[in-house]
Specification:
With about 220 residues, the chain is α+β, with helices and mostly antiparallel strands. The radius of gyration is 20 Å and the shape is elongated. The chain folds into 2 domains: about 90 residues, no CATH class; about 100 residues, Beta-Lactamase (2-Layer Sandwich). Strands 1-6-2-3-4-5 form a 6-stranded antiparallel sheet. The chain has a 5-stranded antiparallel sheet with strand order 8-7-11-10-9, sandwiched between helices. Helix content is about 30%, strand content about 35%.
């Protein structure tokens, strides 16, 4: 049994079209319809496990064979299911046991943060919420906020910032900072994750930035 995850909605169309709808999707595509039922697991937009049982046929297709079969179908009905890092690992284990991994092998697992790092940031004066996210999905969070919305918006801002720094030949992006009269938002890449901090207008921005830079594995100047 795959993890339940969080449903992002139901769609119809060719499976290959998912790349344009959600290029960095991480989770499960659950397929159901008159033609059969099955799933494909993705991480960062890359498929790594699949299974499909054709209606009326006893033996299900698995792995590469299942994925190729689904890609060849011009129209399928499917549901996008987002996974946390823990759910990703659980889904991978289930797929491996069932022999559904594709020949390329499972994608590298998404990392996670030591809870103490987030707690250290959350304790800074004025911090309202802090979240670690990947590909627009909140994985670990502390504080009070709509973390799913925060992660989605932060991912868009991070991509825009990365594109701008690249176009202007400014080097690797260290942090994105938005500041208004109502509050502050700080976003920073961290290994294969990103960290987003929401803070009030009186928060000490310097201390928050320092707490982010002090996380192990970062090499900011």
């Amino acid at each position: 049994m795959l993890p339940d995850g969080v449903s992002l909605g139901r769609l119809q169309g060719p499976l290959g079209g998912l790349a344009s709808i959600s290029p960095g999707f991480t989770g499960a595509v659950r397929i159901s319809g008159p033609g059969g039922t099955g799933f494909v697991l993705f991480q960062g937009g890359d498929p790594y496990a699949a299974a499909f049982e054709v209606t009326g046929e006893g033996q299900p297709l698995i792995g590469d064979e299942a994925y190729r079969h689904l890609l060849d179908r011009p129209m399928i009905a499917y549901e996008l299911i987002a996974y946390t890092s823990g759910e990703i690992e659980a889904a991978r284990a289930v797929s491996e046991e069932a022999g559904c991994l594709m020949s390329e092998g499972p994608a590298a697992p998404v990392g996670s943060l030591d809870a103490g790092y987030l707690e250290r940031i959350a304790r800074q004066p004025g911090v309202i919420a802090v979240s670690a996210f990947h590909e627009g999905f909140a994985l670990q969070s502390l504080g009070s906020a709509d973390f799913e919305q925060v992660a989605a918006v932060a991912e868009d801002l991070l991509r825009a910032g990365t594109r701008i720094t690249g176009d202007m030949d400014m080097g690797d992006l260290s942090q994105v900072i938005l500041e208004t009269l109502a509050g502050k938002l700080i976003i920073a890449p961290y290994r294969d994750l990103s960290v987003c901090v929401l803070a009030g207008p009186d928060a000490n921005l310097g201390l928050i930035r320092l707490s982010i830079r002090s996380m192990p594995g970062r090499d900011d100047p």
